[in-house]
Specification:
- By secondary structure, the protein is mainly alpha-helical.
- The protein contains ten helices and two strands.
- Helix 5 crosses helix 7, helix 5 packs parallel to helix 9 and helix 7 runs antiparallel to helix 8.
- The longest helix has 24 residues.
- It is elongated and about 65 Å long.
């Protein structure tokens, strides 16, 4: 373990034990370094690292604070990691999405408001029967984001938001190369919406699984 890693672990320990709580201001650098038995330089590096993953908030001229530690805030760091994905890991991202998104869709069946169902229906109607691939992919991202939001689980929402980036290119490429991709996507969206209107969580889960798996299966066949 490097001295910076040790410093990170010690600050983490203070937060986990409650010595530092969400919103608390950290002691002055010299005081905290002495208290933790660290050099000021290693403490500074640890603070910089923890600020990158939204655990600490460094405010110039004011001090360093523990953030709210809200799951949505902390999971924003996931998008940073996801941005560095390799093309050969897209299938792995799709597999994770296939596990999480159907669960979120099933949860939404009990919670989604009628007004939101109407808005989703209007979105599908506005898209028409023959949208461009770019229009379809943008609508697809928005359709699923709104349903996942309706699940009421902010952690799931943040995770799936972070995972959507690497799969976008695969969705566009499928739309350009697979003849039935556009009509099939619209059909599956309407089936998901119908299941949500019926408050049928299992049907919603099944259609969401079919929907995500269809992109995954197409991508496997092209590799």
């Amino acid at each position: 373990m490097t001295v910076t890693d040790e410093a990170i672990e010690k600050i983490k320990g203070m937060i986990v034990t409650g010595a530092l709580r969400p919103g608390d201001r950290l002691p002055k650098e010299s005081e905290l370094a002495a208290e933790l038995g660290l050099s000021r330089n290693s403490l500074r590096e640890a603070v910089r690292a923890l600020s990158l993953i939204r655990i600490l908030d460094v405010r110039q001229g004011d001090g360093t604070y523990v953030t709210s530690l809200d799951p949505q805030l902390l999971l924003e760091a996931l998008s940073f990691v996801v941005d560095f994905h390799r093309d050969d890991t897209v299938l792995e991202f799709l597999a994770v999405r296939r596990i999480l998104e159907p669960a979120a869709t099933a949860m939404a069946a009990d919670r989604i408001a009628e007004a939101e169902l109407d808005a989703l229906g209007a979105q599908l109607d506005a898209l028409g029967a023959d949208p461009s691939v770019e229009e379809l992919v943008a609508a697809d991202l928005e359709f699923h984001r709104r349903i996942v939001q309706a699940s009421g689980n902010s952690v799931l929402c943040s995770l799936l938001d972070g995972l959507s980036g690497p799969t976008t290119r695969a969705r566009v490429w499928r739309g350009l190369t697979q003849e039935s991709a556009v009509s099939r996507t619209i059909l599956e969206h309407r089936a998901i919406l119908a299941a949500l209107r019926d408050r049928d969580g299992e049907a919603a889960r099944s259609w969401a699984t079919v929907h995500v798996a269809s992109v995954e299966h197409w991508l496997r066949s092209t590799l």
